[in-house]
Description:
The structure holds two protein chains of two kinds.
Chain A: E1 2-6, H1 10-34, H2 42-70, H3 83-91, H4 112-137, H5 142-145, H6 151-175, H7 184-191, E2 193-197
Antiparallel strand pairs in A: 1-2
Chain B: H1 5-8, H2 33-36, E1 57-59, E2 63-65, H3 70-74, H4 82-89, H5 127-130, E3 133-134, E4 137-138, H6 165-169, H7 183-190, H8 197-201, E5 211-216, E6 223-224, E7 227-228, E8 230-232, E9 238-241, E10 245-250, E11 256-260, E12 264-266, E13 279-284, E14 294-308, E15 313-314, H9 328-331, H10 334-345, E16 354-363, H11 403-437
Parallel strand pairs in B: 5-14, 13-16
Antiparallel strand pairs in B: 1-2, 3-4, 5-10, 6-7, 8-9, 9-10, 11-14, 12-13, 14-15, 14-16
Amino acid sequence: MKERLYLYTRFERFWHWTQALLIIFLLLTGFEMHGTISIWGYEKAYIWHVYAGFALIVLTAFGIFWHFTTGAWQHYVPVKEKISQIIHYYTRGIFYGEPHPFEKRPDQKLNPLQRVAYLFLKVILFPLQLLTAFLLLFYEWWPHLGINLNLQQVALYHTAGAFAFLFFLIVHVYLSTTGKPWYSHLKGMFLGWEEIEKN
Amino acid sequence: MVSNWCRCTSCHAGYGWKDKNFDLSQEEKIDCLVCHDTTGTYKKFPTDCGYPPLKDKVFAGKKLFKAVNLSFIAQNVGRSSRESCGKCHFFSGGGDGVKRGDTDSTLVKASRKLDVHMDAKGLNFSCATCHTTLAHQIAGRHYDTPAPGKRNLALPKDEGYRLKCESCHGARPHKPEKGLFDWRLIKLNDHTDKVACQTCHIPFYARGKPTNTYWDWSTAGRFNNGKPIVEKSPLGPPSYHTKKGTLKWGRNLVPEYFWYNGTFSYLLPGEKVEANEPITLIKPNGSPEDKESRIYPFKVHLGKQPYDPQNKLIIIPKLFGPKGSGAFWADFDWIKASRAGMAEAGLPFSGKVSFVETVQYHALSHMVAPKEDALTCASCHTRKDGRLAKIKGVYLPGRDFSPWLDRIGWLACIFAFIGVTIHGGLRIVLARKSRKED
């Protein structure tokens, strides 16, 4: 039996997809500056990286506001229930057509693993990237602000953060195909409505 | 210069500087006209110890030097000009552009492309526009120690201190042409803490005349059936000259870059030095830790010079003089030339001469290219063969990375990719199987 639920509001979808594009663009321009790939040339990669970074900050500001005003932040509060069942599902059950042990509902859209993963993303990874980005961009101000850091270390933290984002992106994109049918999560994220199987 | 006085002092200025007893404090020996002549007719005879020819004279059996008309010249004195400074400075090293690589006679009528400040149709600076003077003390960049000093800006009260790029352009020199704010320029301005203006704005040197890059004295003194040999290089100046040896030349050369705080270390006459080649004669001082140091472009000049292996001294040979004086250019004997030169310099000589590789660095500060020809980001911000590939002590994005972090990062991402591929593949295969079983 299937149920059609409105899970993702208009702002949430706009926020999600804009953020996705910005992060992919930041990864491309960032790895160009890192010397890994070569698409636009260093100068353009640099300036667009900065612009995209500021765009992401503006978007994140709206995102934070939205999370707190709508109470959506509560989706990221970690819970302990069903973690072992979910791990069992992704390592075995999914191959044999077993149902997902977690049931998506508008008031709990994220399964316990997602909660932990996204919380890590929001509380650790985003701040790390933002902080190191600002430090790198404004390294000339360090002496005036009493900051005594090593530019190379800051740059390496920012690079490590970039790898973490890329890692997340790979896994996240793949897991978006694990719905039934495979595109149902994607469709939900585009249209807001998702068909959920009821147990 | 020592022991070659009357030749060298045709530029190294002063009247009658013919031996080591010349008194540099004698004001009546100062040659005023060499700087202040505006007629272009004042010339010094190349071998007359700094004196101009007072009657018609022939140099080296070829070039006629007409007697200078001193009263005409004296009635036409004026400010120095590119021509008057250039008479010596463009020809340092014994010919046009030979030594410096960033000053030569093409600056007299410079194009914008060659020198954006001296552009005859544009800003039309003279040398003294930047090399400002106070009571005949000429601001110079590299010979006083420390030359650039503090990074002060030239306010009207600082007239006379306009030598540095920052004197006029400030410490954040790039300003948006329109609007108030340009992120690109902000980041360019951030570079001035570590990178000298010259590094990006003198992208190539020897853009006028070819400059000498290698000078091997050890091969000098060869004759062809008793006649001196002069072989031309493709760029024009000689690739071999009996008096000078083997020479190499270059045009439009890429500088080498070093940390530089405005001062040099010199190997001084009589300073013992091991023959660990190459022996550094002049080297820029500076380090990434030194706040006054910037990354700066240099012409690197290599050579092979006579050396006394017993006394461990670079030899100052006597080159110029009459036959029988020991002068190399008359007698062509390195031992005699070394004995005569070192005796005059008051230095010991063992009687043995070998040849050692030497290297010296010349800071590049002239022939500033227009902004469209400046280096671009990727000239240095690149993994391989960037302009600053050898510069240490600074994290250079695009060049520097941690191989370990990259290895771990890529491995993690590749494992993630392989993992999800296998996971996805299994899902497809097993889903088909279960459908069949249904």
